[in-house]
Automatic annotation (TrEMBL):
SUPFAM superfamilies from the UniProt entry: Metallo-dependent phosphatases (SSF56300), Purple acid phosphatase, N-terminal domain (SSF49363)
Coiled-coil region list: none
Top-level taxon: Eukaryota
PANTHER family: ACID PHOSPHATASE RELATED, PURPLE ACID PHOSPHATASE 10
CDD domains to which the protein is assigned, alphabetical: FN3, MPP_PAPs
Family the UniProt entry places it in: Belongs to the metallophosphoesterase superfamily. Purple acid phosphatase family.
Protein name: Purple acid phosphatase
Length: 468
């Protein structure tokens, strides 16, 4: 056995360097933890007199206009708006650029609600049906001197090689950072055609008495996008609004009154979970805050829904939820574990391409991994690489009042491909049945920076390793 004196000069320094490199390798073998450090600004909601919250001029003018898909296949649209003083006109006038023939909607539902000391305006939901695919429509809400005109483009016919670009935003809120995120999304060069919104909308419940005026201001804030483009809604924990201390016992009351979705068209019993087809994608929305164990309505619905997906028609299978099933931040750590145990085997069995969540106020993308081998007796509780498994994306980084989640677990888990504590948005650009390009854009000094990207290879048609 040699002594210290037998080492060559400088070898102790070399040994230290090698040891440090070994430690670094252990810390980094999971993937990339971004070195970018965002300047921390106070997360505060923009004041009510901000121009992004401006009410449209005129007595009882329609406001908070928003649209979403109105049926299962994309040939209908739900148009929603609020009139503050009286119901007003409950019809939508619309026409396509192809024909210019004016039509009028039917079957508008007008509702309102009370929440503690707040009474909402008159909330209108109108479904326009039998629309032509891939067509630009103009529509008008209101009447007389307070008419307001908008437009939207219907999705193309459902088909296996139909290209389509989705945007991804979660946990948006209505702070100055929220405004930056939405602006960057609107400027994205890929020009997303519809937005997958991962829950947590207004953050009204972060204000005293769940100030529902913040639901109104948020609706006016996002109108500049959602009045022209379908947003596919997911309910988050900030939509629950359960507050027994002020006498509010009905979960999701403001959200369910304001945001209509086509849940009945996918045989769901609740608007909190449903599915839609759009271009070459089949999108399943789940509720992290509704019962999902065996025998519950959501469990039974998903069990019956997944086998219905025809990958020859819609090759891309996308699942949306609010609470992530995999998360390497110290915020909301393992909150999605019980849902993972219940649903992950089905995701692997049916070769789901990607599961997208919010909730954690940061960004993360995993490799294709699963933990379905584990049970309570075998101790195999380590996620393994699985080519049939989804990629899990966490994108709860819209810019809300609660700020960033910047405390990560260390070392970075092996399943984590990229993570960064910054605000931003992403796009999922489907090219054909085999390939989709994905990119996450960081908010950085007034511009959007593409900080993480990957080519997704379809699990059903081209199940090879994705390229980062």
């Amino acid at each position: 056995m040699g002594s210290r004196s037998s080492f060559a000069p400088g070898s102790s320094a070399l040994a230290c360097c090698l040891a440090a490199l070994a430690i670094f390798a252990v810390l980094c073998d999971g993937g990339t933890t971004s070195p970018f450090v965002r300047t921390i600004w106070p997360s505060v909601d923009m004041p009510f007199d901000s121009d992004v919250f401006a009410t449209p001029p005129g007595y009882n003018a329609p406001q908070q206009v928003h649209i979403t898909q109105g049926d299962h296949v994309g040939k209908a649209v739900i148009v929603s708006w609020v009139t503050p003083d009286e119901p007003g006109s409950n019809r939508v006038r619309y026409w396509s650029e192809k024909s210019q023939k004016k039509r009028y909607s039917e079957d508008t539902v007008v509702t309102s609600y009370k929440y503690y000391n707040y009474t909402s305006g008159y909330i209108h939901h109108c479904t326009i049906k039998d629309l032509e695919p891939d067509t630009k429509y103009h529509y008008v809400v209101g009447s007389g001197h307070v008419e307001r005109q908008f437009w939207f483009v219907t999705p193309p016919e459902v088909g296996p090689d139909v290209p389509y670009t989705f945007g991804l935003i979660g946990d948006l809120g209505q702070t100055h950072d929220s405004n930056v995120t939405l602006t960057h999304y609107e400027q994205n060069p890929y020009k997303p055609k519809a937005l997958l919104f991962l829950g947590d909308l207004s953050y009204a419940d972060d204000h005293p008495l769940h100030n529902n005026m913040r639901w109104d201001s948020w609706g006016r804030f996002v109108e500049r996008s959602v009045a022209y483009q379908h947003w596919i809604w997911v309910a988050g924990n900030h939509e629950i609004d359960y507050c027994p201390e002020i006498g509010e016992y009905t979960p999701f009351k403001p959200y369910l009154h304001r945001y209509e979705v086509p849940y009945k068209e996918s045989n769901s019993s609740s608007p909190l979970w449903y599915s839609v087809k759009r271009a070459s994608a089949y999108i399943i929305v789940l509720s992290s805050y509704s019962a999902y164990a065996i025998y519950t309505p959501q469990y039974q619905w998903l069990k019956e829904e997944l086998p219905k997906v025809n990958r020859s028609e819609t090759p891309w299978l996308i699942v949306l939820m609010h609470s992530p099933l995999y998360n390497s931040y110290n915020y909301h750590y393992m909150e999605g574990e019980s849902m993972r145990v219940v649903f992950e085997p089905w995701f692997v069995e049916h070769k789901v391409d990607v599961v997208i969540a919010g909730h954690v106020h940061a960004y993360e993308r995993t490799k294709r991994i699963s933990n379905i081998a584990y049970n309570i007796t075998n101790g195999l509780a380590t996620p393994d690489s699985n080519p049939n498994a989804p990629v899990y994306i966490t994108i709860g980084d819209g810019g809300n009042i609660e700020g960033l989640a910047n405390n990560m677990t260390e070392p970075q888990p092996d399943y984590s491909a990229y993570r960064e504590a910054s605000f931003g948005h992403a796009i999922f650009d489907i090219k054909n049945r085999t390939h989709a390009y994905y990119a996450w854009n960081r908010n950085d000094d007034g511009i959007a920076v593409e900080a993480d990207s990957a080519w997704f290879h379809n699990r059903y048609w081209y199940s090879v390793e994705d390229s980062s």
